[in-house]
Task: structure prediction
Amino acid sequence: MNLAERYRSVLANIEQAAARSGRSASDVELIIVTKNHPSSLVLELVNLGHGIFGENRDQEASKKAAEVSQAGAAANWHFVGQLQTNKVKSVISYASTIHSVDRPSLVSELAKQLAKTDKILDVFIELNLTDDLGRGGVDEPDLAALTEQVLGVKQLNLLGVMAVAGLAKDPRSEFDRALRLADQLRRIAPQAKGLSMGMSEDYQVAIEMGATHIRVGSAITGPRPNNA
Ligand SMILES: *Cc1c(COP(=O)(O)O)cnc(C)c1O
Result:
């Protein structure tokens, strides 16, 4: 399959997974993760009618966003990777949404850098679904406090939670955990109904379980040029 065929096939799968769970495909936002691929691939996808892309490293993303914009194409960038505080200033210059808010120091830096602008940034709080404290994502005991902190920053618009399932054979148990933590978050932030979960291997299951945002890379782009 070529790029257009893979893109259409994923769109058809989204449609079917949504239908299986009594939802509409329009309730699911597809973020195409283009990390390790050149801006030319982003431009091809823009030509196919897609406008929302995800990246996980600032250095690569800022360059790509600039190239795509110089080519006259409209793209909406979501940052989905681990975010170092010293990259915040750069990331908020091109990204509309950050999926990986996971610690107080990051929220403070976002507040500080956003205050110099008039931007409102959409964010998800990333969950740690493993029992390893200190992995990427907030640990369950810290979720409530981090949620309160985000709600206290006017320029952050909390959309919900983000989860990355591990390499378990069945992602359902991990997604179940994400749903439970999403409930906890909504007790504090009732409007934050978003659920960013599902990647190439598991987006159909994620949609059946209620995902509102899926982050799909290789199923559309093909294998990444370098390991990432
Ligand atoms: C790379 C990446 C994806 C997409 O992964 P694929 O398996 O290629 O679909 C999604 N989310 C995050 C956080 C990623 O880093």
Observations:
- Residues 3-20 form the longest helix (18 residues).
- DSSP finds nine helices and eight strands in the chain.
